[in-house]
Amino acid sequence: MYWQDDDAEQPIAIPDDVVDVQFAIDAKRIPVDHGCALGEAVLAALPWEEGQAALGVHTIHVAGSQNGWQRPDHGQDQFLILSRRTKLTIRVPKSRADALKTALTGRVLDVAGCRLTVGAGKERPLSKETTLFARYVVDPHRRNEAQFLDWAAAELHAMDIRIRKALCGKAVTLATPDGPLLTRSLLLANLDVEDSVRLQRLGLGPQRGIGCGLFIPHKGIDAVQSGPR
User: Pfam families, alphabetically (predicted)?
Assistant: First the structure.
C-alpha cells in the first residue's frame, strides 16, 4: 500500500506594500453622493503631487437604517447621518502611509459644504477574505448586466485573477465635475486568497480616488442585490 498525506497547508503571506489607513472622523453629515467631493478634499490635503494616482479613497458607509432613520436615495441633495463610529478609510502604498497620517490627522475637510474633522489614523492590512465587494465600478460604455460581467471577467483575466462567481448590482450614477459617471456594484466570491489580495491591491477600472474600483471583504450577496450603500 502507498499512502501519502496531503502536504500541510502553508500560511499565505499577505503583501504589505499596500494598506488601508483608517481614520477616526468627527462629522455630522455628508451627502449620500460624496465620493468626488471627499476625494478632492483628501487630495488637496496631501503633500505629494501624484496623490490621486497613488491612493484609493473609500466612500464613507453607514448602516441602511438606524434608530428609526432610513437611508435616503442616492444623490447630492440627500445626506448620510454619521456616528462617532464612522471611519474614513484610504488605501495607499505603505511607503506613503506615514505621510498620509501626518497630512490628514487634525485637518478639517470641506466635503461639499459639510465639515469633516480627521482624527488619528491606524494602518490595516488587506484582507484574506475570498469574497470581495466593490460598491462602485466605472461602466463608461453603459453596458447591460451581462455585458458588464463579460467586461469585468476579461479585465480580471488580464490581471491573472480567476473568477468563479460574480454578481453585479444595479447601475448608480455618481456626480463629477466632468459630468455623470455611470457605475455598477460588483461582488466576487470563491476567489483564491492570492487573487483576492491582488485585486484589493490593484482595483478594477479608473477613478479610485473617488471610491470606484475598490474592493472590500464581504460575507454575503444581500448588499449587491439591493444596490450600493
Answer: Cas6 (PF09559)
Question: Nearest to residue 36, comparing CAs of 183, 170, 142?
Answer: 183
The CA-atom distances, in angstroms, between 101 and each of 8, 60, 84, 105, 207 are 40, 18, 19, 6, 22
Strands, E, within 62-131: which ranges?
A: 65-66, 69-70, 79-81, 87-93, 108-111, 114-124
The band of 125, judged by pLDDT with boundaries at 50, 70 and 90, is very high
Tell me the whole-structure pTM to 2 decimals: 0.86
- Whether 1 has a pLDDT exceeding 50, the answer reads no
Question: Is the same domain home to 149 and 218?
Answer: yes
pLDDT tens figures, 76-121: 678 999 988 999 999 999 999 999 999 999 999 999 999 999 999 9
Domain identity same for 180 and 106: no
Provide the CA 43 distance to its chain's centre, in angstroms: 16
Amino acid at 31: P
CATH assignment at residue 147: 3.30.70.1210
Q: Residue 84 domain-assigned?
A: yes
Asked whether residue 174 is domain-assigned, the answer is yes
